[in-house]
Amino acid sequence: MSFAKLEFFNPFSRSIKDRAVYSMIMEAFRKKKFNGTRKHYEATSGNVGIAMAALSSVFNLEFRAYIPSNTPKATETIIKIFGADVVRTDFDVIDQEFIEYVKKEAERDKAINLNQFENDANFFAHYTITAKEIEEQLKSIGKVPEVVIAGVGTSGHIAGIAKYLKEKYGTRVIGVVPAKGSTIPGIKRLETKPKWFFKVKIDQVVDITEEEAFEGIVKVARNDGLLIGMSSGAVVAAYEKIKPEGTTVLIFPDDGFKYVEIFERLLAGARDMTSSQISQPQAP
C-alpha cells in the first residue's frame, strides 16, 4: 500500500520548502540576526526563493534571490511579485562555488545569508514536524511507515524524516537523485555533498533521468488527476523502478504549475506519448 504526502498544500510556495524557510527565519529572529538589518540573500533554484519572498513580505524583510541561469521564468516572476529582487546568475547549478558567491554578496551588502544548505533549522523542521505528521497520518488508519521515498536536494527533508522514522520504526528510506547528465529541479546528485544526507542512514539511492521524471508526472496526471512537480515525478519514477513492499510514503515536494516551460519542452520531445502508453485506472 502506498501513499503520497502532498506538500504543495503548504500555502506560501506551494511546496515543502515553506517548512524549512519558516524555521530558518524564526531561528534567525530568535538569535537576533535581523537586528541592524532587514536584508537577506539566498541561493535558490525555486521553491526556497518563493517561500522566502512570501515570508519576507509577512515579516517586512528585504529579500534577494540568486538563481541559476536555467531557472524557469515563472519562478523568477513569482518571486518578483512578492517584491523581492532576483539576480539570474551564470551558474547552471547550485554548487559550493555558487553558495560561496552568495555568501560574499551578502557580506558585501551587510545582509544575512540564512543558507538553506548548511542551516540546521532546515533539517530540524522535518525531524520535528514533517516526520511526525507522517507518523500521525498513518497511525490514524492503523499503519506505520515501512518505506519512505524522497528526493535529495539540500537533504534537509529526507534526512530529517529518515532520522525520526528510523529511530521509531526502522523505516527503510530511499533517496532519489538525477541521473548523471540530467537536471531535475529540486534534487541534486550526491557529488554536491548535501550536508545532512551523510549524517543519517539512507538505505538506497535511485538515479532518475529527466525523461523518467516526466513520465512519472504524466502517469500521476492521467491516473490521479494531480499535476505534480519535477522532483515529485522523479519520486514516482523511483517507486516504479524498485516497487517496494509494505506501507510506502512518497514525498511530493511541490506541484507542477511553475514547471510549464519544462513540460512544454519535454512534451514536444515525446509527441508519441499517448494516453494508451500510460497505465490508466480501471473503471469502477
Briefly characterize the structure:
The protein is α/β, with parallel strands linked by helices and 284 residues long.
Question: Which terms summarize this structure?
Answer:
284 residues, alpha/beta, Rossmann fold, three-stranded parallel β-sheet, 8 strands
Number of discrete helical segments: 9
What is the approximate shape?
A: globular
Low-confidence regions:
278-284
DSSP strand tally: 8
- Beta-strand portion reads 5-15%
Structural class: alpha/beta
Biggest beta-sheet profile: 5 strands, parallel
How many domain units?
2
Our Rg estimate from Cα atoms comes to 19 Å
- The CATH class of the largest domain: Alpha Beta
Instruction: Please bin the fraction of helical residues.
Output: 40-55%
SSE sequence, one letter per element:
EHEHEHEHHEHEEHHEH
Please give the CATH architecture of the largest domain.
3-Layer(aba) Sandwich
CATH topology of the largest domain: the name is: Rossmann fold
> How are the strands of the largest sheet arranged?
1-8-5-6-7
How much is the average pLDDT? Answer: 94
How far from one another are the termini?
A: 19 Å
